[in-house]
Each structure stands twice: as C-alpha cells, then as structure tokens.
Design goal:
Layout: H1 2-5, H2 12-24, H3 42-52, E1 62-65, E2 72-77, E3 86-95, E4 98-107, E5 109-111, E6 115-118, E7 123-126, E8 129-134, E9 137-141, E10 143-145, E11 149-153, E12 163-165, E13 172-173, E14 183-189, H4 195-208, E15 213-216, E16 223-227, H5 230-242, E17 248-251, E18 265-273, E19 280-288, H6 293-298, E20 309-310, E21 313-314
Antiparallel strand pairs: 1-2, 1-13, 3-4, 3-12, 4-11, 5-10, 6-7, 6-12, 8-9, 8-11, 14-16, 14-17, 15-16, 18-19, 20-21
GO molecular function: GTP binding; GTPase activity; guanosine tetraphosphate binding; translation elongation factor activity
Keywords: Cytoplasm, Elongation factor, GTP-binding, Nucleotide-binding, Protein biosynthesis
Domain Elongation Factor G: 178-251
Length: 315
C-alpha cells in the first residue's frame, strides 16, 4: 500500500503475497461469486485456494482431546512427519470400486500395511490400499505423511469425524460439527418394488454426508429427506437416479391434520334388540372432555378412558 501511495505499481506477486498473509491472519476474507451447479467461477476459487490459503505447515497445531472425557489434553498435533500418526476421516464415499475413506493426516507417517486405531470405536484396522484422488483418477500410494489428503480403500466401521491414530499413542482430534438441516422434501419410488432399493441407496448416502438426513414420518408414512438447501437435495435426488438407478417422485411433506372436539359433550345411548329369548338391553351414559394440550400433543393416537361403568360396577 505504501509503494502504491508513492506512485509505484505493485507486482501481481506482491499483491498475492499480501492477500495470502492477510488471509492467514484472518484479516482478509477473499470472496468469489460462482455456481457449482453451472460450473461458473469454480476455476477462480481453485486458483485462490492455491494462492491464498495457508499450507498445512502454516496453520496452528490441532488440539488433542481425551477419547474418554472429550476434554483437551493440552497436547497438539504438530504438522510433522516425526510425530505419532494422527489423521481425521472427513468424508466417506461408496462407489463401484469399494468404500473410500478420505483422511487428512495431521502428523506422522502412514505406510501401506500399517495397523492404525480408530479412536472412536477402539478397533484397529490394517491399511491395504491408499490412493491419491484427482477427480475420477486414482494414483496408488505406498506411503503418505503429515499435510497429505489421501483416500484409504476398504476401511470398515469408520464414519465422518472419526480420528485415526497410532495404536501406541491413542488420542482424539477436535470433532467435526455438522449443521442442522434447513429444508426437507418427501420422496417415494415410482415403482412399487423400488422401496428396498431406495432404502439401501439412501442409507449409503447418509453415511457419506452427515449433513444429509432421512426419516420416516410415523403419521403419514412418507420418507423425508433433509438437507442444507434446495441444490443439496437436488443433487441427492440426481445421485439416486444416476448412480443407484432409483427414480423418485418428489414433493413437499404432507401436513398431518388432526381433529378434536371443541367443547365437552355429554350424551347417552340405549341398545335394544329382541330376537327371541331374553333379548338384549343396555344403556350407557358418557361424557367426552377435552384433553390437556400436553396430552393432546404427546398421546394423540391413544384413547384415554378415565372411568367405565360395567354391570353396575365401576371399573
């Protein structure tokens, strides 16, 4: 800025260096316009990631927490290949080649054939294959170290946010926080026989993306998909069709309307039937009262009988 005020024109390299420093110090927040859906502005964002975001060894060390208490231990995962192995699983993907667990290595080294510990489950797993992903291409790896982002093939019982570490140095990295879904749609398979296929596919997608949720409305029986926005759910519906071959009927969730009485009611009913013999006779006096709001909201499907008169006896 001083050079510019003195009439000198700063170079592109100087401008990028200053923006990078400001971004690293959280003083600058570079903002770009674009659309992932229409593939507009994506290249600019990728270039900005390279030019302005800090390298792994430039970020603050990741604090470690105790696996049992969840409290910080005071130790940190320094980005160094000489430290014990610590990594965070941040994405799960299931494709035709098998399950892929994407991990970021915060410290240490990982070699093909190593045994690592899942701090969340307490179980160990042996590393069979490691790959570096570049779009749809996979480059086989024999080792990786701190700062690398890789995908491990065939891991079991691993979910997004789990910490993977050296069995001799058990620890937990700061857990990921997932936002609450803000929009929902109702879906149903176009074919009656597609319900099972849809359920299996949605189950895999929920495991891959914790911000994507599914539930079944107990009252309407609808399958409700929840996500972070309209585009988020549009992509999920498209994946169900293209990847899993499930055609869906998409709509808004139904509103479960409920009926109730507005005022207390008292009445009686007499039953008479003569078809020979002693015949049938019965009389009942009844009163229907309004339930409390709490009872009405929590037990609307239940009939509460307070007292009942039967054979002249109070039951």
């Amino acid at each position: 800025m001083e050079a510019y005020m003195e009439g000198e024109e700063p170079s592109i390299e100087d401008i990028k260096r200053c923006i990078r420093k400001g971004t690293r110090d959280l003083a600058f927040f570079p903002t770009f316009c674009g659309s992932a859906y229409k593939n507009k502005g994506i290249q600019l964002v990728l270039d900005a990631v390279v030019d302005y975001l800090p390298a792994p060894n430039e970020v603050d060390p990741q604090p470690l927490t105790d696996p049992e208490t969840g409290e910080e231990t005071g130790e940190v995962a320094t980005v160094s290949a000489d430290e014990p192995f610590r990594a965070l699983a941040f994405k799960i993907m299931d494709d035709r080649f098998g399950a892929l667990t994407f991990v970021r290595i915060y410290s240490g080294k990982l070699n093909k054939g190593d045994t690592i510990l899942n701090a969340a489950t307490g179980k160990t797993e042996r590393i069979g294959r490691m790959v570096e992903m570049q779009a749809n291409d996979r480059n086989e790896l024999t080792s990786a170290q701190a700062g690398d982002i890789i995908a491990i093939v065939g891991m079991k019982n691993v979910q997004t946010g789990h910490t993977l570490c050296d069995p001799k140095h058990e620890c937990t990295l700061e857990p990921m926080i997932f936002p609450v879904p803000v929009i929902s749609i109702a879906v149903a398979p176009k074919d009656k026989g597609g319900s099972e296929k849809m359920g299996i596919a949605i189950g895999k997608m929920v495991a891959e993306d914790p911000s994507f949720q599914v539930e079944t409305d107990e009252e309407t029986g609808e399958t409700i998909l929840k996500g972070m926005g309209e585009l988020h759910l549009d992509i999920k519906v498209d994946i169900l069709k293209r990847t899993y071959g499930v055609d869906l009927i998409v709509g808004q969730p139904q509103v479960a309307y409920r009926e109730t009485i507005t005022t207390p009611v008292e009445d009686s009913y007499t039953h008479k039937k003569q078809s020979g013999g002693s015949g049938q006779f019965g009389k009942i006096d009844y009163r229907i009262n309004l339930a409390s709001k709490v009872l009405a909201s929590s037990s609307h499907q239940q009939l509460l009988v307070v007292t009942c008169l039967k054979n002249s006896g109070l039951q």
